[in-house]
């Protein structure tokens, strides 16, 4: 590969005149924007232990009332992108949100797509487009682009969940905005009950035009049972993984980010090949080692970490007796749309 000319090689008067006319020579910058074979990545492997995050989040509950926060969240920010960029990876935002007993996080809708992964506490609900979704540990609840959503909590203990949004992507595209609204009327019917059994979907006879997102809540009990059933039926299967999909289309549950649940059998070491998308791992049950790009994390229950794209990841379950269950979020739908999804080695 040729060495290209540098900016300093050009006479100052020429550089000044280019800048004055909003012009930039490509060749001094070409290798930065098109590095050889492997993209440059700011995303660093980062581990956010829940044990250190939780007391800080509860303290936010004492320091900042709901009216002053709207959403009481500590953002899991990747220092590789700069903390103020509030991103875990190029397209993924992560936050831990706290709702205290009796609180209500008011209704709004926005262009970024969001999901919630419930971490602890019982008795909270998220109402999405009028559907009131109970929030139980490990449940995945969608709030797709443009859909009204609000959170409320009638239980006795604090509720915490992990928010995953494509906010960095939407913000980058200059399409991120929100609209505030009033408390939503609750509609009868629940997608998690209508679509409770894989491969069997409701068949409307009298109604036309269903929702683009028919299933908004994916109960952990169902995802866990699917993993346990898959592992039992295929003892030789290396990666016991399921993907959260739209039950009407079979495609990814949301537009830009992909969501999966993965089971590590007792004692299992699973090497995931290097793939282009960045990934996030969150432990729902058990514990897991995550080795990526020279970092080795020991994730306890409710811990979260992220991994840059184009790196192999090794997951290990050190328990000889118990399986481990992970929630995985990645940028694969986006990469497929961009036509750049790839697996290496
Ligand atoms: C949002 O709407 C929620 O509704 C949480 O709970 C986090 C972060 C950025 C932008 C919107 C929520 C958010 C958010």
Average of pLDDT: 97
Order of strands across the biggest sheet? 1-19-16-21-14-13
Q: Assign a percent range to the helix content.
A: 10-25%
Q: N-to-C terminal Cα separation, in Å?
A: 24 Å
Overall strand count? 22
Name the hetero compounds present: 1-hydroxynaphthalene-2-carboxylic acid
Commentary on this structure:
The chain has 345 residues and is of the alpha+beta class. It has one domain: Jelly Rolls (Sandwich), CATH 2.60.120. Helix content is 17%, strand content 32%. The chain has 7 helices and 22 strands. The strands form 4 sheets. The chain has a 6-stranded antiparallel beta sheet with strand order 1-19-16-21-14-13. It has a 6-stranded antiparallel beta sheet with strand order 2-3-10-5-8-12. A hairpin with a 2-residue loop joins strand 17 and strand 18. The longest helix has 14 residues. The chain starts with 11 loop residues before the first helix and ends with a strand. The model has no long low-confidence stretch (mean pLDDT 97). The site of 1-hydroxynaphthalene-2-carboxylic acid has 12 residues, from strand 3, strand 4, strand 9 and strand 10. 1-hydroxynaphthalene-2-carboxylic acid binds next to strand 3, strand 4, strand 9 and strand 10.
Tell me the layout of helices and strands.
Blueprint: H1 12-20, H2 30-33, E1 46-48, H3 50-63, E2 73-75, E3 93-99, E4 104-110, E5 114-120, E6 124-128, E7 131-135, E8 140-143, E9 149-153, E10 159-165, H4 167-172, E11 178-180, H5 191-194, E12 217-218, H6 220-233, E13 240-243, E14 258-264, E15 269-275, E16 279-285, E17 288-292, E18 295-299, E19 304-307, E20 311-316, E21 324-330, H7 332-338, E22 343-344
Antiparallel strand pairs: 1-19, 2-3, 3-10, 4-9, 4-11, 5-8, 5-10, 6-7, 6-9, 8-12, 13-14, 14-21, 15-20, 15-22, 16-19, 16-21, 17-18, 17-20
The chain binds 1-hydroxynaphthalene-2-carboxylic acid.
